[in-house]
Amino acid sequence: MFQGKILKQKSLLNHIKRIKMENLLKYNTHTKESQAAINHDMALQLLKDGNQRFLNKSMISRSFDKQIEMTSLGQYPFATVLSCIDSRVSSELIFDQGIGDIFSIRIAGNFVNKDILGSMEFACKLAGTKIIVVLGHTSCGAVKGACDDAKLGNLTSMLENIKPAVQKVTEPTDANLRNSGNISFVNKVAEQNVHLTIKRILAESTVLSEMVHDGSINIIGGMYDIHTGEVTFYE
């Protein structure tokens, strides 16, 4: 009975904390102080909690006009998300975040180049975000294009950034199954693309690799399932 009472009290306290957090996020946005208090583990948990709210259809009803007012003189986001341009994969929505909460970098196939690395360095070193998420998604059109060796204007050279992931997936060996018609293959390539992108970030950005080394930030991969809305993190 005593243990049951303690569990009920803990449950009530957690409920109160969630209500307080939802009210905070509804009417406010992150400040310099709240950003400084967040480490990369906490930042990841905030994203996980947001995706769970998205899945549960319990997204926070925010006062965007209030958030616009509060961020007009500065921004203190806690996370940077690199994702695809796919219209179904909006980081602010799937992680249930408001104005001023995250930096969102989007490019078909969620790969990096010097411009994107520079944006990430700004986001983390100068603007103070604590985590970089490289977010792929299932049934990615850019990945399908790389699998099929698609040719179309500037898209042709862009897809070269994804082809190392295609080569990284060794099965199946049958060429007839290594294309966009095999969605299992496509999704495996999408996953490899996330992992290779993280390796490129660490290899090509001294600024970010040093921040990971000293514990200031973390870089983590994830996959968004377009059928369920769930994000699986590669931890």
Characterize the structure shown.
The protein has 235 residues and is α/β, with parallel strands linked by helices. The chain has a single domain (2-234), classed as Beta-carbonic Anhydrase, Chain A, CATH 3.40.1050. Helix content is 51%, strand content 12%. It contains eleven helices and five strands; from the N terminus they run H-H-H-H-E-H-E-H-E-H-H-H-H-H-E-E. It has helices at 2-27, 32-36, 40-56, 64-71, 91-94, 114-126, 141-147, 155-158, 163-168, 183-204, 206-213, and strands spanning 79-83, 102-106, 131-137, 218-224, 231-234. Strands 2-1-3-4-5 form a five-stranded mixed β-sheet, with helices on both faces. Mean pLDDT is 91; it is low at 14-18.
Secondary-structure blueprint:
Elements (H helix, E strand, L loop, with lengths): L1 H26 L4 H5 L3 H17 L7 H8 L7 E5 L7 H4 L7 E5 L7 H13 L4 E7 L3 H7 L7 H4 L4 H6 L14 H22 L1 H8 L4 E7 L6 E4 L1
Parallel strand pairs: 1-2, 1-3, 3-4
Antiparallel strand pairs: 4-5
Rg, please?
A: 20 Å
CATH class wording: Alpha Beta
- What does the main sheet amount to? 5 strands, mixed
| Chain oligomer state | single chain
Mean pLDDT: 91
Q: What share of residues is helical?
A: 40-55%
In the CATH hierarchy, the third-tier topology is known as: Beta-carbonic Anhydrase, Chain A
Number of domains: 1
Overall geometric form: globular
Number of strands: 5
> Strand portion, in percent?
5-15%
Element order: H for helix, E for strand? HHHHEHEHEHHHHHEE
Spatial strand arrangement across the major sheet: 2-1-3-4-5
Q: In angstroms, what separates the terminal alpha carbons?
A: 38 Å
CATH superfamily: Carbonic anhydrase
Low-pLDDT residue spans? 14-18
